[in-house]
Automatic annotation (TrEMBL):
Catalyzes the conversion of 3-deoxy-D-arabino-heptulosonate 7-phosphate (DAHP) to dehydroquinate (DHQ). Keywords: Amino-acid biosynthesis, Aromatic amino acid biosynthesis, Cobalt, Cytoplasm, Lyase, Metal-binding, NAD, Nucleotide-binding, Zinc. Its cofactor is NAD(+); Co(2+); Zn(2+). Gene3D superfamilies: 3.40.50.1970, Dehydroquinate synthase-like - alpha domain. Belongs to the sugar phosphate cyclases superfamily. Dehydroquinate synthase family. It catalyses: 7-phospho-2-dehydro-3-deoxy-D-arabino-heptonate = 3-dehydroquinate + phosphate. The keyword NAD applies. Its EC number is 4.2.3.4. Pfam families: DHQ_synthase, DHQS_C. It comes from Stanieria cyanosphaera (strain ATCC 29371 / PCC 7437). InterPro entries: Dehydroquinate_synthase (IPR050071), DHQ_synth_AroB (IPR016037), DHQ_synth_fam (IPR030963), DHQS/DOIS_N (IPR030960), DHQS_C (IPR056179). The gene is aroB. NAD(+) binds at residues 106-110, 130-131, 143, 152. One of its GO terms (molecular function) is 3-dehydroquinate synthase activity. This is 3-dehydroquinate synthase.
Length: 363
């Protein structure tokens, strides 16, 4: 069992990584000294496979357990879905000492966290991620929220979990497409923070599915990615500065997701496209070399992720969507741009002309 501590000014919590630990959810939560009532939020597909294990573990530890299911997909990450979670919380009389458990991927984690942040002005929250993307990224750091029709995650709050419980065994049932999407975030950590992790991914023969990754490499991926996220978040909980680097690839990535109505790409695929775009922008500005950009792009392609923007997307529409991005400051779009493998900078000096040129080159 590996335990990583996320140290924050007002609180600290553990990321527990251990094969088979899903059945220990109840005993792990008992250590938190929380109230008896627990509401598990999941989607029907995940709950059908792992719901019983979670519920039985919680009941065996003495918790009074209920559950609420939200249909799978980004299109359900809405205020309407959130209201239904509140209705279930009200129906079962959840109190401030109660706990909401997110059993699922990033969508479930974001929504459950926001529900926990806002129900009774804040109840306990536990993350049990079931996708690679959620394990290495979305479950750590306390970003919670839902989408607005005009943009991704525009409604939300910073709200930290009490515990993140990661069981690598659940990845066995993860569809290959979702596994590859999670690898986009892993590659992101290699580019922004951990050159050694990037090198290990380059050396691996195949990284495009769970079946092709050795257990030792998977363990390395989970530990180093979550440690990177913990390091960054511990230094900057609410994105006042450093934490913005975690948005590498997300600026144009979010625009692609939004303009394709969350139907053509899953999140990690859009991030992969965004990383290729950010790499080209950095090259145009002389921040890093063509060779390093090629290394990144080869790794993304090796993972089986997309690297081009759909031709049907209008350049002006992308530029307009960028202006509604959360990272806009004083009217300027801020990009995270690599300067070498393992290091990036935050820049608001990217001109519309460069963005135009890069988007056209990637279509």
């Amino acid at each position: 069992m590996t335990s990583i501590t996320v140290n924050l000014p007002e609180t600290a919590y553990e990321i527990v990584i251990s094969p088979g630990c899903l059945s220990q959810l109840g005993s792990q939560m008992k250590k938190l000294n929380v109230g008896k009532k627990v509401l598990v939020v999941s989607n029907p597909e995940i709950f059908a496979v792992y719901g019983d294990t979670c519920l039985q573990s919680l009941k065996a530890a003495g918790f009074e357990v209920y559950h609420h299911l939200i249909p799978a997909g980004e299109t359900y990450k809405t205020l309407q879905s959130l209201e239904q979670v509140y209705d279930t919380a009200l129906k079962h009389h959840l109190e401030r000492s109660s706990t909401l458990v997110a059993l699922g991927g990033g969508v479930i984690g974001d929504m459950t966290g926001f529900a926990a942040a806002t129900w009774l002005r804040g109840v306990n929250f536990v993350q049990v991620p079931t996708t690679l993307l959620a394990m290495v990224d979305a479950s750590v750091g306390g970003k919670t929220g839902v989408n607005h029709p005009q943009g991704k995650n525009l409604i939300g709050a910073f709200y930290q979990p009490k515990l993140v419980l990661i069981d690598p065994n659940v990845l066995k049932t993860l569809p290959e497409r979702e596994f590859r999407a999670g690898m986009a975030e892993v590659i992101k950590y290699g580019v922004i923070w951990d050159a050694d992790l990037f090198g290990k991914l380059e050396q691996a023969e195949q990284i495009d599915s769970f079946a092709h990754i050795a257990p030792e490499l998977l363990e390395t991926i989970l530990i180093r990615s979550t440690q990177a996220k913990a390091d960054v978040v511990s230094q900057d909980e609410k994105e006042a500065g450093l934490r913005a680097i975690l948005n590498y690839g997300h600026t144009i990535g979010h625009a692609v997701e939004s303009l394709t109505h969350y139907e053509q790409f899953v999140h990690g695929e859009a991030v992969a496209i965004g990383m290729v775009a950010a790499g080209k922008i950095a090259t145009q500005m002389g921040l890093w070399t063509e060779e390093e950009a090629d290394r990144q792009d080869r790794l993304i392609k090796k993972t089986g992720l997309p690297t081009t923007i759909p031709a049907k997307l209008d350049v002006d529409a992308i530029l307009e969507t960028l202006q509604s991005d959360k990272k806009v400051k004083s009217g300027k779009v801020r990009f995270i741009l690599p300067t070498q493998i393992g290091k990036v900078e935050i820049s608001d000096r990217v001109t519309t002309e460069i963005i135009n040129e890069v988007i056209l080159a990637l279509r």
